[in-house]
Write a structure and sequence with these properties.
mainly beta
Length: about 1000
């Protein structure tokens, strides 16, 4: 949007901008006024340039340096000539040149005629003596020319001559490299240093002295440098450098002291001495150089030999191998260990060892290993050797190698038992309980000496409650027991009525050690632990009860069982269960109240029972080994973890249910031959019994409809409750098809559950029987298929008695399906349009017989119409459509559908169904349809209206912003 600006505004701005321009113009006028006042009116010097032929600064000693003086004429002139009237001391014209020079134009041509405003230059060649000090000197310079008027005029000027200092050397070190390596401990290595000349002068020749940090030494620190031109580089090598082994890895500062003969670009030579610093890097010694390793270490001279903890002057051979790629020489070794006394522990090897080569060094030591019995002692070898790096350089490596030295046996007199225990315990690992006779305790000892022992005898000292058999009070070993040999002895003992737990016995060993000559007699006592197990919970009862599950009063031959499990005994032999029954209970096989039962298997039909008066003699015969073998199918010996099963038939003569108890004793012989008895009380619980569960239907057994509700009556005939009773009702197996869809009659629910059915109690449960018109059944021996008649229903009953035993049995009930007709309407639809009512639908026969001459009649608004269908079989359906006229103003009417049919007895039956239908007469409703696309046109118009409103609002906002901005701008201008 344009903004109107007044003239006053522009005037103010022009005044502000013109002030700096006027100020600069005044300064320029003043400057030129001063300049004109200091220069001749006709000529003035435009520029002075004093450079060498190579366009460099002029230095002391420069020759043929070119002085160029540019002069501008303010008048027309002829034959201008420039002359150096006087030169500073030491600056002279070059050979073949003078102090006068003709003028040349800017194109290099001789300038005889010069017009006003033209610039010409004058060239002089000067040489500077080396004695001239650097600085700026002035020479008087004159210009002689002839004006247009014929006058010869001369103008004088002072021109500067600048002599510069010689260029400073600019030498950098671009790379520093060790050759072959730079590590702590390297000797004779070389350092390659690359120098680059980045200065203006070249080096004609030079000597460089290297200054190394502390910890590095060099035989000859000086090298000669050849010519090094500007931009060129040269590499010098400093040889025979030694790096101290104690110098830590890292970066170190060094520098080169260079004394050089320099030459400028115009050939002036001069001397310069300067330092160039650089950084040296010292790296850690890589592991690839520490490749001297111990290949093997063994005791002995030519072959390995055992040594003991007190061996003296034992020879140790250590074989070293070079695992690296570099040659190793000058090996120095020193063996040390806190477990040895040195005899000769230093050894050296001077012959070079190439990569993969080996060398053997030997040492002599005395062992001092009193603190350990047997094992490996650590030893350390300090090694120093040289690694040949090539080119005369080598690396000194210091390393510590750790080795393990095997010590056999143990030293004499160190307090360690000479007779060691290898193993001990009861024979075969059997458990021993209190009151055990003839238990055998086995001990295996070892000779831990490095030599044999003989004349050994052993005595076992027992604690109270234990006694040894006379045959094993002392065990004497006649033959020698070799070094590291073992010997096993067995002590037979009796264990009294001690408490279970651990007891300590002592083995007294008396023997002679065959260490040479007559040997040395020793006696040692070794503690040994005796373990006695607890009889408690050694036998457990797994289960017991009646095989039949629940036993009723006055039952004969009821089978009772009990199962034991052996938890701790290593063997249970010939068990027998003595049972003493309470009043009212008798053993069925002996008709007595007591007897001994032998174990059997759960599948044994008749268990073996010993009369009560013969049980003690039977057990005594087992102890003496005179009993005859049992004919039972059960094993005679049961191992640890095995089950022992007993079963015996009883006559239950009690008159009431309840809990009764029998006293029992389980007798057997354990693995040591000791008789053991386990007493317990056996529960004989009489729960009662369930004789029969009766299932019957209460009510009319005739099925004359699709759904028939009946009551199922379940009765428990017995003296004990039934638990978890399941009753399943299912059709019989004589159906035409096994598919459920073809079953003629189904029960719902088909499975019934009763948590508890008390004795002599009755439960009544409602059941709905559903007739399937599509189902059918066959009459035995007939080919016709019918869908009515007597239908058997199978009843399956499952329950648990009070003993937890599952029982099941099957029964049947019969229901009579009589012929009946059941018509229903489905999928009925109706429509009312222009006074015409149309009713459509399906008629389904859910009955068991055919409906004959079926007619559908529709009544509505005092009008009626009918449709004849015909016969509809059982399970069939037929469609119908009835149309009738109703008043034109009818909108809502009740419609009645009447079904008439005949049964098998030619009896007319009538059923009616009413429902409501809603319709809209078309002649009373007028509706104008919008033309195609009208909806789209309306939407477009609405969209355009919305866009127009948006643009109007946007324009108003922009206009308000414009007005506000214009007002603020005017206020700013007016201020």
């Amino acid at each position: 949007m344009p903004i109107a600006i007044t003239n006053e505004y522009w005037v103010k701005r022009m005044k502000a901008r013109s002030f700096p321009l006027v100020f600069l113009l005044l300064l320029s006028v003043a400057y030129f006024t001063v300049a004109l006042s200091q220069s001749p009116a006709n000529t003035f010097i435009q520029n002075v340039n004093f450079k060498t032929q190579q366009n460099t600064d002029v230095y002391p000693g420069s020759s043929n340096a070119q002085l160029r003086v540019d002069v501008t004429f303010n008048v027309n002139a002829t034959n201008p000539t420039g002359k150096l009237e006087s030169l500073p001391s030491g600056i002279t014209p070059s050979s073949g040149y003078g102090t006068s020079s003709g003028a040349r134009d800017l194109y290099g041509n001789n300038a005889k005629n010069v017009t006003a405003g033209e610039t010409v230059y004058f060239i002089f060649y000067l040489s500077v003596d080396k004695s001239v000090k650097p600085g700026t000197y002035y020479s008087e310079f004159s210009v002689t020319y002839t004006t247009n008027g014929g006058n010869i005029e001369t103008d004088y000027f002072q021109v500067p001559l600048t002599i510069s200092e010689y260029p400073s050397p600019n030498i950098i070190i671009s790379s520093v490299n060790w050759n072959p390596a730079g590590y702590p401990g390297v000797h004779g290595t070389s350092l390659q240093v690359t120098l680059e000349n980045q200065g203006e002068s070249s080096i004609v020749s030079a000597t460089a002295n290297i200054m190394l940090p502390s910890g590095m030494e060099i035989d000859n620190p000086q090298v000669q440098l050849g010519a090094l031109g500007t931009g060129n580089s040269v590499t010098v090598t400093f040889s025979s450098i030694d790096i101290s082994e104690d110098l830590p890895p890292g970066n170190y500062s060094a520098f080169l002291n260079i004394n050089a003969l320099m030459q400028t670009q115009d050939g002036v030579s001069y001397n310069s001495t300067f330092n160039v610093p650089f950084t040296l890097s010292v790296s850690s010694v890589p592991s690839k150089y520490k490749e001297l390793s111990v290949l093997s270490a063994y005791w002995g001279d030519t072959r390995p030999q055992p040594v003991y903890g007190d061996s003296l002057y034992a020879q140790l051979n250590v074989q070293y191998i070079n695992l690296g790629d570099y040659t190793i020489d000058s090996i120095q070794t020193q063996l040390s260990s806190p477990f040895i006394l040195p005899v000769r522990t230093a050894s050296a090897y001077s012959t070079p060892i190439n990569g993969g080569g080996a060398a053997t060094l030997n040492y002599y030591v005395s062992l001092n290993v009193s603190s350990i019995q047997k094992g490996t002692i650590p030893a350390y070898i300090n090694v120093t050797y040289r690694v040949d790096l090539g080119g005369g350089a080598y690396l000194t490596i210091k390393d510590v190698l750790k080795i393990g030295l095997d010590v056999e046996g143990f030293p004499l007199g160190n307090g360690t038992p000479r007779i060691g225990l290898v193993s001990w315990g009861w024979y075969n690992g059997y458990s021993v309980f209190p009151n055990t006779k003839g238990a055998i305790f086995s001990i295996t000892i070892s000779n831990n000496l490095p030599y044999s022992i003989s004349a050994a005898n052993f005595t076992l000292l027992l604690p109270d409650g234990f006694s040894l058999d006379t045959s094993t009070e002392k065990i004497v070993v006649g033959n020698p027991i070799q070094s590291y040999g073992t010997y096993t002895m067995q002590f037979k003992m009796n264990v009294g009525g001690v408490s279970p737990g651990n007891y300590t016995a002592f083995l007294l060993s008396d023997f002679i050690a065959n260490s040479g000559g007559p040997g040395v007699k020793y006696s040692e006592i070794t503690p040994i632990e005796l373990s006695i197990d607890n009889l408690t919970d050694s036998i457990e009862v797994l289960n017991w009860g009646w095989k039949e599950g629940s036993v009723d009063v006055f039952s004969y031959g009821a089978n009772y069982y009990i199962t034991f499990r052996n938890l701790k005994f290593d063997g249970v032999s010939n068990p027998v269960l003595y049972v003493s029954l309470p009043n009212g209970f008798l053993l069925s096989s002996t008709n007595t109240s007591a007897g001994g039962i032998l174990p059997s298997s759960p599948y044994t039909a008749t268990p073996q029972i010993i009369p009560g008066s013969e049980v003690q003699q039977y057990i005594q015969n087992l102890l003496t080994g005179t009993s005859q073998s049992s004919s039972s199918s059960a094993p005679s010996t049961y191992s640890k973890g095995s089950s022992i099963y007993f079963s015996f038939p009883l006559n239950v003569m009690v008159g009431a249910v309840g809990n009764y108890y029998a006293n029992a004793t389980l007798s057997f012989i354990d693995a040591w031959g000791t008789l053991r008895e386990y007493k317990l009380e056996i529960p004989l619980t009489v729960y009662g019994a369930i004789n029969y569960i009766d299932v019957r239907i209460i009510g009319d057994l005739n099925i004359m409809n699709r759904y028939t509700n009946l009551t199922l009556e379940i009765t428990n005939h017995g003296s004990s409750p039934a638990y978890n009773v399941y009753i399943s009702l299912s059709p019989p197996s004589s159906l035409v098809s096994s598919q459920t869809s073809n079953t003629i009659l189904l029960a719902s629910p088909s499975t019934l559950y009763i948590a508890k059915l008390d004795a002599n109690m009755t439960e009544r449960i409602p059941v709905t029987f559903v007739y399937n018109p599509l189902g059918a059944q066959s009459i035995s021996g007939a080919t016709a298929i019918i869908n009515y008649g007597v239908v058997p229903i199978q009843v399956s009953i499952q329950y648990k008695d009070a003993g937890g035993i599952q029982h099941s049995f099957n029964n049947q009930i019969a229901l009579a399906i009589e012929p009946f007709i059941k018509l229903s309407l489905t999928q009925v639809s109706s429509s009312l349009s222009n006074g015409t009512l149309r009713v459509n639908g399906l008629v389904v026969n859910y009955g068991s017989q055919t409906a004959y001459r079926v007619t559908v009649e529709v009544e509505a608004a005092n009008a009626s119409s009918s449709y004849f269908i015909g016969d509809i079989d059982s399970g069939s359906q037929t469609a119908f459509s009835v149309q009738l006229s109703v008043p034109s103003d009818a909108r809502k009417e009740n419609v009645t559908v009447i079904l008439t049919y005949y049964n098998n007895y030619n009896e007319l039956k009538r059923e009616s169904i009413s429902f409501e239908v809603v319709g809209q007469p078309s002649q009373n409703i007028t509706q104008t349809q919008p033309p195609q696309g009208a909806a789209g046109l309306i939407e477009i118009r609405v969209a355009l209206a919305m866009v127009a409103v948006f643009l109007l609002l946007t324009g108003i906002l922009i206009y308000r912003m414009y007005r506000s901005h214009s007002r603020k701008l005017r206020e700013m201008i007016e201020k």
